[in-house]
Amino acid sequence: MERLDKILSNLGYGSRKEIKALVKAGGVVVDDKVVKDNGLQLDPEKSKIVINGEEIFYRKYIYLMMNKPDGVISATFDNRDETVIDLLYIEHQAFEPFPVGRLDKDTVGLLLITNDGELNHKLISPKWHVDKVYYAEIDKAVNEQDIKAFEKGIVLDDGYECMSAKLEIEESTEEGSKVLVTVQEGKYHQVKRMFEAVGKKVVYLRRIKFGNLPLDESLKEGEYRELTEEELNVLINC
Ligand code: URA
């Protein structure tokens, strides 16, 4: 059970004071009765709440898929730069969501955003072996030796030994390469540092898959949407 004004303010319907005024004006109906008490205790999962004639869709957690654009920080707050949370509508910001793991400022593509701490933990912990797939463009030719080195486990500049990773070559010339990289962990700048360890540079990086969930290619960079129930199940079971 929770207080009505707390439920509504958490959902972004205004401050407690504004909700008190809304209740006083007769704008809130719970289970078909006009509410007089803004401190009414109720179970939001069971009660029907109508505000100014419109039924609200209550949920505790939100799960968003964003096609992250270049130049935006994967954090909830930053002093200087725009964050992925700044790109959300107020009604989604009201849930106080956070990005699942991080993408670098210049990395684009699939970023999950949620307020479900438990799922977040499962998805970012290397223990669960959740695959993250990246499309990358590299400044030089990528070869069979690199594939083997990635498979064996790259040692990063700080001595960290990466888990085995899959490297697939789509195109490789002396002018540059297009590759797919699958990793199961998320160390700082991981993919870029893995290529640096074999003497190459990532010039473009886009995450295209998280677990069994592919990026919705119809989302333009900077756009996002809620996951469908089916997608959420795919994610939970990956
Ligand atoms: N690896 C990187 O180097 N950067 C990212 O943003 C993600 C993975």
In short:
Helices cover 22% and strands 28% of the residues. By secondary structure, it is an alpha+beta fold.
Task: Give an overview in words.
It is built from seven helices and 15 strands. By secondary structure, the chain is an alpha+beta fold. The longest helix has 9 residues, at 16-24. It is elongated, with a radius of gyration of 22 Å. The mean pLDDT is 95. The site of uracil has 8 residues, from helix 6.
What labels would you give this structure?
single chain, 238 residues, alpha+beta, nine-stranded mixed β-sheet, 15 strands, 22% helix, elongated, binds uracil
Mean pLDDT: 95
* N→C terminal distance: 32 Å
Bound molecules: uracil
Structural Rg: 22 Å
Number of strands: 15
Lay out the secondary structure:
Elements: E1 2-3, H1 4-10, H2 16-24, E2 28-30, E3 33-34, E4 41-42, E5 49-51, E6 54-55, E7 63-68, H3 90-93, E8 98-99, E9 108-114, H4 117-124, E10 132-138, H5 144-152, E11 166-173, E12 176-183, H6 190-197, E13 202-210, E14 213-214, E15 224-226, H7 229-236
Parallel strand pairs: 9-13
Antiparallel strand pairs: 1-4, 2-3, 2-5, 5-6, 7-9, 7-15, 8-9, 10-12, 10-13, 11-12, 13-14
The structure holds uracil.
Domain RNA-binding S4: 2-62
Protein name: Pseudouridine synthase
Enzyme class: isomerase
